[in-house]
Design goal:
It contains 18 helices and 12 strands. It is α/β, with parallel strands linked by helices.
């Protein structure tokens, strides 16, 4: 197969390509400050080098490769104060890439790969969002984010340190690619700036100057060499080619960023932790709970961290409430790709003393509420060919115990619902799984401890010890541990896990006969 530049082809030549085996590659970079020694479009130059190196590898695999002209304007908030930087909105970039992908799809090209060299967080979020949305009609957008594993570990030591903007890493690539545009005399006189830009970003810094780069560079620019640059370009090309090959083999998208998720019981505990974990992966969220102030506080927190989150008030025991919630989530998100059924309640009473009203209340919230939410979002998931449903059950759904008949029965029902729904969606690109934690450090466990104190002669400390005695780890599970399992079940790597139960109890269940 061959390598083409789209701008060099005629429309008839594009139509004559083997479109089933054609991949378009779009270089993406910023026009922004790169120290006093590199041109404003250094990122574009690097992205184009990555695109060409990747294209050569993919062409050797028998694919038709079409190189697009590079995008030169992206979100660039960190360098916006420096003259010459052009900073556009993240939503603008996402929409532009999605539109480009849609145009390619109409021409018969079904795969667009993004070669990106601009690492501003808002730019990365925009690209992940575009990859998640795609270009419609089975269009695949592949974006290997070199700041994430496994890709970043393959790049240079300076890159991995986070001190790499306009330093040795980028300077070396420019020397290899376009040495005439490097101000080498200035570059060799620059002092080292070992400040980690990535660490500064994580600490909340908002621009280069605040992060310690008053001249818009980080790292070791005077150590740049063309030899290192040539090796790095080949590594970048290999990353791009591998990501495209893996995506073609899977026939699926590769990122959670930009996906829409609905989480019930999202105002505290496991639900709030799951919201934070998914938001960190670029997921857009609608959070629902009966307590409006709590769920609004979590949504506001996520927005403050740069995420997209909306709060909704819902009592999942009421079918009308759940129907309205599903409509609102779809309106807010465009599509509900992920459903986390976390809303739940617990109580305790001996079977002979358990009131029918309490039995029915627990079943409506713990089992029927999840059923209603699944009914509301599953048809759309099946239609789109992608969806993840995670039901938060309990180890009580795996075994019974004294005084929790209603709770245990409702969680057993939730597991049965999980397995049955999973069987129905098998092969449709949708998975339905459950997590079963033991005692988690949440308000629900606090209520359990309080109930033990009321019903026995124990004080609070002894009640806690009684609970911990049932756990091999002798500690409460952190909500974040459960959230991590929920997020994993939503990832591409878990696409073959369906109808399963992930147990988090330190091995207590495994020890049962």
């Amino acid at each position: 197969m061959t390598l083409h530049r789209l701008s060099d082809l005629t429309w008839e030549e594009v139509g004559a390509l083997d479109l089933d085996r054609t991949v378009a590659i779009l270089p993406v970079g910023a026009t922004e400050a790169h120290g006093p020694h590199l041109p404003l479009d250094a990122d574009v130059t690097i992205a184009e080098a990555m695109a060409e190196a990747g294209a050569r590898r993919l062409s050797a695999l028998g694919l038709e490769i079409v190189l697009l002209d590079g995008l030169r304007y992206t979100p660039a908030a960190f360098s916006a104060r420096f003259p010459g930087t052009i900073d556009i909105g993240a939503a603008t970039l996402t929409a532009l890439i999605v539109d480009i992908a849609a145009s390619l799809r109409r021409a018969g090209i079904a795969t667009l790969a993004i070669a990106n060299a601009h690492l501003d967080p808002s730019n990365l979020e925009a690209l992940h969002a575009a990859a998640a949305v795609g270009g419609g009609d089975a269009m695949r957008i592949v974006f290997p984010d070199v700041t994430r594993r496994p890709w970043g570990s393959r790049l240079t030591e300076e890159f991995r340190s986070g001190a790499c903007h306009a330093g040795r890493y980028e300077g070396s690539i420019l020397l290899a690619r376009d040495p005439g545009r490097v101000r080498e005399e200035i570059m060799h006189e620059l002092e080292d700036n070992p400040v980690s830009l990535s660490a500064a970003i994580q600490a909340g810094m908002k621009d280069f100057a605040e992060a310690g780069g008053t001249r818009a560079y980080f790292g070791y620019p005077s150590q740049a060499t063309a030899e290192e640059g040539r090796a790095t370009i080949e590594t970048l090309g290999g990353i791009l080619a591998e990501a495209v090959r893996e995506a073609l083999e899977r026939g699926e998208r590769v990122s959670l960023a930009g996906r829409g998720a609905l989480i019930t019981g999202g105002g505290r505990g496991i639900g709030a932790a799951a919201a934070r974990t998914l938001a960190d992966r670029g997921v857009r969220l609608v959070l629902a709970a009966r307590s409006t102030p709590e769920v609004e506080a979590v949504a506001a927190e996520l927005r403050g961290r740069g995420g997209e989150a909306w709060a909704a008030t819902c009592d999942v025991s009421e079918s009308e409430n759940v129907e309205a919630l599903c409509r609102e989530a779809q309106d807010r998100l465009g599509a509900v790709d992920i459903l986390v059924n976390n809303a739940g309640v617990a109580s305790s009473a001996a079977v002979v003393k358990l009131a029918l009203e309490e039995w029915e209340r627990l079943w409506r919230i713990n089992a029927t509420g999840a059923f209603l939410a699944m009914q509301g979002v599953m048809p759309g998931m099946i239609e789109r060919g992608w969806g993840r449903i995670v039901n938060v059950a309990s180890v009580a759904g795996l075994r019974g115990a004294r005084y929790i008949a209603a709770y245990a029965a409702s969680k057993h029902a939730l597991l049965g619902l999980t397995r049955s729904a999973a069987a129905e969606v098998a092969g449709a690109g949708v998975t339905v799984n459950a997590v079963c934690p033991g005692y988690v450090d949440t308000p629900m466990t606090d209520a359990t401890i309080e109930n033990i104190v009321k019903r026995t002669d124990m004080d609070e400390k002894d009640a806690v010890e009684a609970i911990l005695a049932t756990t091999p780890q002798r500690r409460l599970i952190a909500p974040g541990e459960v959230a991590a399992s929920i997020a994993f079940l939503c990832e591409d790597e878990a696409r073959s896990i369906n109808g399963q139960t992930v147990v988090l109890d330190g091995g207590a269940t495994a020890a049962l006969p």
